[in-house]
Amino acid sequence: MTPEGLAVHAPLHWSDAWLAWRDRLLASPRFRRWAEGFAPARWIARRRAGQLFDLLAGFVYSQVLLACVRLGLFERLARDGPQSLAALAAVLPLPEPALDRLLQAACALRLLERRRHARYGLGPLGAPLVGNAGLAAMVEHHEALYRDLVDPLALLRAAPGQGAGGALSDFWPYARAADPARLDAAQVAPYSQLMASSVPWVAEQLLQAYPVHRHRRLLDVGGGEGALAACLAHAVPRLQVQVFDLPEVARRAEARFAREGLADRCSATGGDFLRGELPRGFDAISLVRVLHDHDDAAVLRLLGAVHAALPPGGRVLVAEPLADAPGAPAIGAAYFGVYLWAMGSGRARTVAQLRDLLQRSGFVDVQARPTAMPLHSGLLVATADGLAKSSVNLS
Prior knowledge:
It contains 15 helices and ten strands. It is of the alpha/beta class and 395 residues long. The chain has two domains: 20-129, Winged helix-like DNA-binding domain superfamily/Winged helix DNA-binding domain (Arc Repressor Mutant, subunit A); 140-388, Rossmann fold (3-Layer(aba) Sandwich). It has a seven-stranded mixed sheet with strand order 6-5-4-7-8-10-9, with helices on both faces. Strands 1-3-2 form a three-stranded antiparallel sheet. Helix 2 crosses helix 3 and helix 10 packs parallel to helix 11 (227-235). The model is unreliable at 1-7 and 390-395 (pLDDT under 50).
């Protein structure tokens, strides 16, 4: 028995024998040779070989994308149309042989396409990056994650929930700060800008999936520099929105509202949502990409504060990437699992796990609302139960 009282070897299930046989078969060189030579099985063998190689080559693929973004290649081709190698080499800071190698790689990854007369144009995966500042910023940002992943075992050996104290945890200082409310303007600016650049994707999903126009006043907890609040205010002209975030972040939100002419309907308040009460007087509270940054105990404290701040029947909107996002199973466990470990805090959760946390915090009628692009964000909506207000479980 282990110290936790669990058996080292669980009882075998009938499926274990089948899966062990399958594993032996797939590992057999003889079977692989047969599958490669047998026409009906050949496409399966080739596809799996390609999938395995993509795992091996994934970092190289991402760096090809980064090089294209840093060169401004997608914007240039969108502006000037398809260009020859010589024309591109004349205006880009790469020697022609190196640029040729990059263009060939980008075509193979469908970022670019070969066009008639030996020219290069946008590919189906490169075109969506044109004018998409948020996506380009995320591509650039991942350099920090890759630095931390140079030695993945060293990263994983760090104390659970503490990360390795590397580039990514430095980028998100609030995740490990003893008192996040004391972070200064220089410390909050980089991550606030990054989050704001990608908010339009999430705002679009939220507005499509939920009738925000039914609410009068919405509190956006952890709302950063007000990008989501501004999107909602522009989309719903009668809606009043307040951002609650760290003091220096709230100041950035106030500046945004002034710039966009929204100061009459949008405001920001500084504080630490994990310590103390939230502002009241709102019939809806949004938590957008907030819960997955924190462990369960912190999430329960926050949801308890949200429940206490809402009137009976008030709604909480939880929008964030889900561990069981439809059509994107690797995002939660593989991508966000490692990313948040390197950041030093949080985890991606399934719909069932989020529903449990919401119900333990006194919310009822927890609904998962389908979004058009679950890869960007899932959405859960729950109602504050007035009967539970005196007995919310914060443990």
